[in-house]
Write a structure and sequence with these properties.
Number of helices: 12
Number of strands: 2
Length: 232
């Protein structure tokens, strides 16, 4: 919607977004004039991808986001991209078929590879690398990111304190390790005992409920119970 709506607010948001992308490129050392060209290229590519994406309402329909295709069928959607080499490069196990949520998006992706210059594709990929790594970049990058995503889009008045951003990063990157330390410090032995009792009660109730389901075969119930008992 951000890319396609034609109302005045949406048009203004897109303008500010392009300005934001340009500023990030400039902070990364790209001269202003060249940064502006790169920002426009990013916007053009993202708009093309948006045109062949599903809106939020459609994405809630499971039938609209499930398209089981073989790798060969996927390759026919986007023949310019070497999917076999890609899967091998990311260390994926042998794949015969997979869910391609939005086939038109994949076709749009292929069209961009054919019709867009290599420089523009590099600009697009560089932008997304910079955006995704903003939390690890100097403060000026983080402040600029907040100016657009925090103030302009979310309406926040000020950026979180640095220590809070650091905590968020740790939680995002090491959630289990942080959770373990939190439990050790705040829950205590008595709290652990209460939590285990609660989980056991939930497991027992769910087990009893599974036995009453008439749409499950006995074998399916057996497998469901085995899965349930792995909770503890």
């Amino acid at each position: 919607d951000y890319y396609l709506k034609t109302d005045e607010k949406s048009v203004e948001l897109r303008k500010k977004y392009v300005e934001h992308v340009q500023k990030i490129f400039e902070l990364a050392g790209v001269p202003a004039a060249q940064a502006g060209i790169k920002a426009q290229a990013v916007m053009a590519i993202e708009t093309l991808l948006a045109k062949d994406s599903l809106d939020r309402v459609s994405r809630r329909d499971p039938n609209k986001v499930y398209h089981k295709l073989t790798v060969k069928e996927l390759s026919s959607l986007a023949p310019e991209f070497d999917w076999v080499a890609f899967f091998d490069g990311v260390g994926a196990p042998p794949i015969e078929s997979l869910d391609v949520s939005v086939p038109p998006f994949v076709r749009a992706f292929d069209s961009i590879l054919v019709q867009t210059s290599l420089d523009d594709i590099k600009s697009y990929m560089t932008w997304h690398l910079l955006r995704d790594q903003t939390p690890a970049l100097p403060e000026v990058f983080q402040q600029q990111s907040f100016e657009f995503y925090g103030k302009t889009l979310a309406g926040r008045k000020e950026m979180q304190a640095r220590w809070k951003r650091c905590v968020d990063q740790v939680d995002g990157q090491l959630p289990d390790a942080l959770g373990r330390k939190f439990v050790e410090k705040t829950l205590g032995e008595e709290g652990m005992k209460r939590s285990q009792q609660m989980i056991q009660g939930i497991e027992k109730a769910m087990g009893a409920d599974l036995q009453t389901l008439n749409w499950m075969t006995p074998k399916t119930k057996e497998q469901a119970l085995a899965k349930l008992h792995t909770v503890m």
